[in-house]
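Researcher: Here's my situation. A collaborator sent me these components and asked whether they could plausibly form a single complex. I don't have experimental data yet, so a predicted model of the whole assembly would be a useful starting point for our discussion.
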Amino acid sequence: MSTCAPTPPTAANATPPLLDVRGLYKTYALPRGQKLKAVDGISLSVTHGEVLGLVGESGCGKSTLGRCLLRLTDVSAGQILFNGQDITKLPERALRPLRPHMQMVFQDSYASLNPRRRITDLLAEPLRVHPTATGQKRSSSAITARLHELMERVGLPLSALERYPHEFSGGQRQRINIARALALSPKLIVADEPVSALDVSVQAQIINLFADLQAQLGLTYVFVAHDLAVIRQISTRVAVMYLGAIMELGQTDTVLHNPAHPYTLALTQAVPQPVIGAIRPPPLRGDIPSPVSRPAGCRFHTRCPIAQPLCRAEEPALRQISTHRAVACHFPLA
Amino acid sequence: MRADMPHTSTQPLLVVQNLSVHVPAQGQLISLVENVSFTVGAQEIVGLVGESGSGKSVTAMALMGLLDSPGVRITGSARFKGQELVGMPPRLLRRLRGRDIAMIFQDPMTAFTPVYTIGWQIEEQIRAHTSLSRKQAQQRAITLLAEMGVPDPAQMAQRYPHQLSGGLRQRAMIAMALSCNPSLLIADEPTTALDVTVQAQILELVRGLRSSHGSSVLFITHDMGVVAQTCDSTLVLYSGRIAETGPTADLFAHPSHPYTAALLASIPPITGPRPAHLPTIASAPPTPHTRPVGCAFAPRCTYAHTPCTTSQPALVPISAQHAAACVLPTEGTPLPPRLGTVQTAQAHSAPHQTGTTPL
Ligand SMILES: Nc1ncnc2c1ncn2[C@@H]1O[C@H](COP(=O)(O)OP(=O)(O)O)[C@@H](O)[C@H]1O
Ligand SMILES: Nc1ncnc2c1ncn2[C@@H]1O[C@H](COP(=O)(O)OP(=O)(O)O)[C@@H](O)[C@H]1O
Ligand code: SF4
Ligand SMILES: [Mg+2]
Ligand SMILES: [Mg+2]
């Protein structure tokens, strides 16, 4: 079981992190009494204004973790602190005033937009439902002004407001989803594979938009992607996940340039690069094991090129190897 | 190498010339694929790359005679081992499919029936095209699974498709496709649904088919990285037309169509300096209905000027086998070569923006 890496009490984090996750578990009950630990003991924190990338192969629990963070799903065990406040068990009614501060953007740009409603109605809805920070209801002129501002922020013409979701391309629809997430001036956005379904030629536009908004508005992101290159482009820090747990956590540049976990190294080597050069052999053999019967000991040992007997016997804890870096491996590479 | 290696003649295996596919829509014929020409040589892997909707699957389906939407019109020529595929009677095409030309897809579940074991389905495929006995076919199926890197093949053959992982299912599908020693394998996004570490394994398998089975492959993907790592030559499709074609190394070193160049530039790099902003391509590709007059890329092209919007640029040679459908080379203003095209272990750029980073 992964234990949590303690947060060092340095001057830098005298203010609480925006998000503090401690020993988080999310277990799904499957038919025939089986249990699937989609999130299996995760601890991490996200400071104000940073972009934490979550990367890992499909099924490693990225989406589940993302939904847990925003309390869109119930947590099995552990603690989530948002801005210092424990939200793990808050009932929906108590969560409601916090909702404006935490928003989500999904991979499927279409599924999250009601096809029968115009963009103006879709975007105005959260503004009508939620009062302002001072508890006031927004006037319709204030709402209109806000919608115009949002359109400009995400690079859409005002005329888009009068149209319906199906009239837009995938990239434009993702801009609309981003506008909706921004409507209530959130502190935190969890973006779950927001560019994965987009055409290659459109991905870069949306990545840039996320980066610009983050800088302009001082937003904090948890940015989920399975594409390491996308993560490298957008994130300050990265958490590499495998079968529900964090394998490595640290500064994006350090982690990707000099991986400490053999799984991180394999991921960096497996990305097919659009350049001509020596062709690399596949870094790993075999497939990801089923999360229902995950390997004992180190959960990566069945595929790890450097596994030792200790790895099969004992699970390595996520432990700090330098100031800003933690790795869950008995034999870290760095 | 196998004893029953397919033929290797000097003629390319497949010669496609001006292949076009039209479908009726709103009272007129619209083109999904327009004047696509290419060849696939013996033991060559040819990449067909383009964004979704660019016409990759339609091209493959047209070659296989699998396009059956009402009123579809396929014109041009596709000669496979000298035989014309366009207009070939369905009965003959069916015989060719599976035996001489095989196809694999993104989703192996479309190739397998859920109710029979993997092994049984491969055996059936073998028996449909050869005179092997059930026992011999069974043995051959297991051998094929082993050749495709399936561990414990005899046992795996007894599993049902849903009992295999994505990577194993893909290997099983390739085994079934190769069961009758086809000379041409058409692979339509075979790794798109896979994770990168598994994709790397399948790409290695596909690259190896050239020598292990003497196969030629038409490899369809939307991923420029996959093309660079897998294909000998490459066709870049944009809106149903060839934007650029050439040996993969030339095309990546010197992309000569602004679309290819812009697409490559927009991919976030995994090594080397990280740009503050990624170069982008404005808006989105047109649909066959909204394709503009002239160059289909013109509305998004930074170099677009009057000649681009008046008539469709022809494919012009850049070097021996490298050509681009753009007016720039003929106007004497070709694009500069691409920088950083060779894989190097470059140092990373300066660290990132924000300050405090506790764990
Ligand atoms: N509602 C659910 N019920 C049961 N299992 C689920 C559910 N949602 C996700 N899972 C399983 O949990 C694991 C993690 O899934 P997910 O969080 O979607 O991973 P990722 O986003 O990294 O692909 C997977 O094995 C998935 O099949
Ligand atoms: N049977 C069909 N009838 C009409 N249009 C089609 C048909 N199949 C595909 N198309 C259209 O043809 C274009 C090319 O599609 P396709 O070859 O599937 O693209 P790709 O495989 O490159 O993603 C798309 O615009 C698609 O909508
Ligand atoms: S023909 Fe013109 S519009 Fe088309 S790619 Fe070349 S420069 Fe751009
Ligand atoms: Mg997910
Ligand atoms: Mg397709």
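Model: Some features of this prediction you could bring to your collaborator: The first strand of chain B starts at residue 14 and ends at 25. Chain B touches chain A through 67 residues (CB under 8 Å).
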